């Protein structure tokens, strides 16, 4: 079924960009915009998948069973309407992105001019195995908050983020 979802996504004229919603859909939306902008179709997807599976930096074992399993898992992860940062980075590696420059233009309440914040994230030398084991830390310009360790704290932070977003929408 996942293959059908990804095929539908890749053959859709808008690559499903409008089917990602909310705060949790931002990274998935960006990934889909990149699929659209780069003209990724099912044939190109297959080439990218083959390249990803066979790249030794990604730590995929050289046997059919594991490769098929990883292929299915990646397809499912990339087709979802929400995406975690870890999956987004994997998607960037899948697309052969070696460097990201993330820029946020923030408009503050009561201030006429937005502020601009940029973080550089090199991806070229990070192996997927290291990333999945949380042992690799990319060089990042600027400071990022540490991700909460336990699920309860992470959930509270997400709820607070949604409350903050709702409050901002009502202002």
Structural class: mainly alpha
Lateral strand order in the biggest sheet: 1-2
Number of domains: 1
**Strand portion, in percent?**
5-15%
Mean pLDDT: 79
Query: What does the main sheet amount to?
Result: 2 strands, antiparallel
The Cα radius of gyration reads: 18 Å
> What's the SSE pattern?
HHHHHEEHH
Shape: globular
Distance between the termini: 42 Å
Overall number of strands: 2
Query: If helices are DSSP runs of H or I spanning 4 or more residues, what is the number of helices?
Result: 7
Low-pLDDT runs: 132-148, 162-171
Please characterize this protein's 3D structure:
The chain is mostly helical and 171 residues long. The chain has one domain. It is built from seven helices and two strands. Strand 1 (99-106) and strand 2 (115-122) form a beta hairpin. The longest helix has 20 residues, at 151-170. The chain is globular, with a radius of gyration of 18 Å.
